[in-house]
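Q: What would this chain look like folded?
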Amino acid sequence: MTSYLRSWLTGAPVTEAKPDPSIPTFNRVSPPPEDDEGSDTATEGDDDRPPAFPSLLSAQRVQSAPRTLTDSPLMPPPALPSAQRTPGADLTARSSNASSSLSVLETTKRPAKPSRKREKVALAPGHSPLDWANLKTSGKDLRGVDTLMRIPPSVLKRHNKRDDAWSAFYGKVYNITPYLAFHPGGERELMRVAGRDGTKLFASTHAWVNADFMLDACLVGFLVPEPSS
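A: My prediction, written as structure tokens:
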């Protein structure tokens, strides 16, 4: 470059400078043309794109998409109107006919047993449960006896009148005469156990009631077996 400028200023002819053999030179090599089809020397793993699966020309892609069922084939056939139903028809015969519709058999139900409800009786004024509690604590003699006794069934049987009614509950004998007018079920129901053991009837009607708490002021004795002769 220096010799070129010198010749241009002085007008001397330009001579091409010869390369110095002592200075190394580098030749520029152009890259090889790109091959669209690829080469056999390409190493596996250069392309990170996953292959198509299934293959574009595979049998899986050629097959048609599976048929999707709608709700119509899954729904049961409509039931017959009530006028076309036959009571007591054979289900096996109906199921053999694929075109027939499902029908509902008419069944008869057993009539419910009439339940006997215990009805409360309207008590006279002054005969409520609170009035009975006050009468027990009033100090009035409700037993009618001076001392507790051992009462066999034969003796208990004698006290079966309206003005002299005894009854046994769970091994204890009570004078139920003063309680007749206070009984919520009425005097008639309580007189059913007058002169006998009323434990079974008492337990079947109101087992949740504490008989001893209700009639403790009327206790006259204890029920014992008949004496052996």
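The mean pLDDT is 74.
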